[in-house]
């Protein structure tokens, strides 16, 4: 793995990690008053409008053709599918556990990138996967004993796959400005979330509780607009599997914030399982060495990610 010398990327990484650490807690508060898909629609609909306004101020061009199709697909995966599943899961599980499961995203991104010919397979990836899977098994014991439905855990893991695949997809798309990609992607996701909210029979109400309003404001401005613009900047410079390391550090922030604001219990299974997941991701996706999985050379198509 190449030394990290890009200070801008490192700053973007740190910013995305800290801001995203409060996302799951904000979603938990939102879910207490708003139905999940409706809350997700309000979040990404508002964030899309804000980003479109920023696009106008910056005079950024709207993507066309293949770039537009790819940006819409990125939005559907990264915001529509992943957050539909995440909002559903966070009705039943605490933010710390939810974010800990999302720590599998770097390994998932690495393995998906290998499967799709973007990166070479490393033996360490297999070891890391097994260690991280053991961590998930440990973390999952407490919620299963508490009668949390298995579909909830499957939804959280489905969100991981959607996040990971969207990161891999970005590297195959024509170059699009991060603000534009997020604006168009969130707008596409908002349409999907609205349709899902309608199909689910959600109550279409605006938040009345002060806590919900503050939570929604946070996940729109800090947790969506700022976080994902910074995240795309990291993907541009570091690649999918390394950028997804954001999801490894986020649980450390989320667990603390959740314990402080949402009374999340710091159980033994969570405290033991979380380090196992983090260790597995480090070994599988981040650790340097002779068998590092450098990106494969680009083919004749020469498409570059954002």
Could you report the average pLDDT, rounded to the nearest whole number? 80
Strand content: under 5%
Number of extended strands:
0
Task: Please identify the structural class as seen in this structure.
Answer: mainly alpha
How many helices? The count is 13
What would you report as the Rg, rounded to the nearest angstrom?
18 Å
The gross shape turns out to be globular
Specify the biggest β-sheet.
none
Q: SSE order in H/E notation?
A: HHHHHHHHHHHHH
> Helical content, roughly?
over 70%
| Tally of individual domains | 1
Describe this protein's structure.
Keywords: Membrane, Transmembrane, Transmembrane helix. This is DMT family transporter. This protein is mainly alpha-helical and 306 residues long. The protein has one domain. The protein has 13 helices and no strands. It has helices at 7-20, 23-31, 36-58, 65-89, 95-102, 105-115, 123-145, 150-170, 178-200, 210-238, 240-243, 246-261, 268-286. Helix 2 (23-31) runs antiparallel to helix 10 (210-238) and helix 5 (95-102) packs antiparallel against helix 12. It is globular, with a radius of gyration of 18 Å. The two termini are 20 Å apart.
């Amino acid at each position: 793995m190449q030394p990290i010398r890009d200070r801008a990327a490192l700053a973007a990484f740190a910013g995305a990690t800290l801001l995203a650490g409060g996302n799951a807690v904000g979603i938990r508060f939102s879910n207490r008053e708003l139905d999940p898909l409706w809350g997700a629609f309000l979040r990404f609909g508002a964030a899309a409008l804000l980003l479109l306004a920023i696009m106008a101020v910056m005079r950024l061009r709207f993507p066309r053709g293949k770039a537009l199709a790819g940006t819409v697909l990125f939005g559907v995966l990264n915001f529509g599918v992943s957050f539909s599943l995440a909002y559903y899961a966070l009705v039943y599980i605490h933010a710390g556990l939810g974010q800990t499961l999302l720590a599998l995203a770097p390994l998932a991104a690495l393995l998906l990138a290998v499967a799709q010919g973007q990166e070479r397979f490393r033996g360490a990836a297999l070891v890391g996967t097994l260690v991280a899977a053991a961590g998930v098994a440990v973390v999952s014991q407490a919620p299963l004993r508490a009668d949390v439905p298995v579909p909830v855990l499957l939804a959280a893991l489905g969100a991981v796959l959607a996040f990971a695949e969207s990161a891999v997809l970005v590297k195959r798309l024509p170059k699009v400005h991060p603000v534009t990609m997020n604006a168009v992607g969130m707008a596409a996701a908002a349409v999907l979330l609205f349709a899902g909210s309608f199909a689910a029979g959600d109550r279409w109400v605006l938040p009345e509780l002060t806590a919900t309003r503050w939570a929604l404001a946070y996940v729109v401005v800090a947790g969506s607009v700022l976080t994902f613009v910074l995240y795309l900047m990291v993907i541009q410079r570091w690649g999918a599997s390394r950028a997804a390391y954001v999801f490894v550090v986020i649980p450390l922030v989320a667990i603390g914030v959740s314990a402080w604001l949402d009374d999340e219990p710091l159980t033994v299974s969570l405290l033991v399982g979380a380090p196992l997941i983090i260790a597995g991701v480090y070994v599988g996706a981040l650790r340097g060495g002779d068998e590092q999985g450098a990106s494969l050379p680009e083919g004749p198509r020469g498409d570059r990610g954002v």
